[in-house]
């Protein structure tokens, strides 16, 4: 919970390219005019270290919690009568899988379109380039960032 709180309340930093101020975000960096380079944050990759480390600790905590819960499931499953053995395990893993699917669906359909400026029509926020009428070329953005 501490890592999640730190991630939630830490500033994320400026994006690599501000789509609301320039139309050159989908252009390779070598072809961007010098006057437009002020809208590019070349130090953006350096902002990710804290979030990567905190995400690693969160993943480690998740693995510990899942391992402990699996051990409890095995204990309870062995105490079930043989005639109905496995029903608790089935119920627990069904609930875990369905809630996991729900989390993936929220991420895929409610949060993804704005962050990647994809063509998905359902999102909690609209893409900045759609508000200004400019398109997006995600493959070019990835090649510039790497």
UniProtKB/TrEMBL annotation:
Residues 125-146 are annotated as: Disordered. The chain crosses the membrane at residues 50-74, 95-115. It is a multi-pass membrane protein. InterPro entries: BT1, MFS_trans_sf. It is found in: Membrane. It comes from the Eukaryota. PANTHER family: FOLATE-BIOPTERIN TRANSPORTER 1, CHLOROPLASTIC, RNA-BINDING S4 DOMAIN-CONTAINING PROTEIN. This is Uncharacterized protein. It comes from Aphanomyces astaci.
């Amino acid at each position: 919970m501490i890592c999640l709180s730190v991630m939630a309340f830490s500033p994320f930093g400026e994006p690599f390219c501000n789509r609301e101020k320039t139309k050159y975000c989908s252009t390779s960096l070598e072809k961007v005019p010098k006057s437009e380079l002020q809208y590019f944050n070349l130090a953006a990759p350096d902002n990710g270290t804290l979030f990567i480390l905190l995400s690693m600790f969160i993943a480690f905590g998740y693995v510990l919690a899942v391992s402990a819960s699996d051990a409890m499931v095995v204990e309870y499953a062995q105490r079930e009568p043989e005639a109905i053995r496995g029903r608790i395990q089935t119920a627990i893993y069904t609930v875990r899988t369905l809630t996991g699917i729900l989390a993936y669906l929220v991420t895929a359909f409610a949060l993804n379109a704005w962050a990647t400026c994809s063509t998905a029509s359902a999102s909690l926020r609209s893409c900045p380039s759609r508000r200004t009428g400019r398109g997006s070329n995600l493959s070019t953005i990835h090649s510039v960032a790497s």
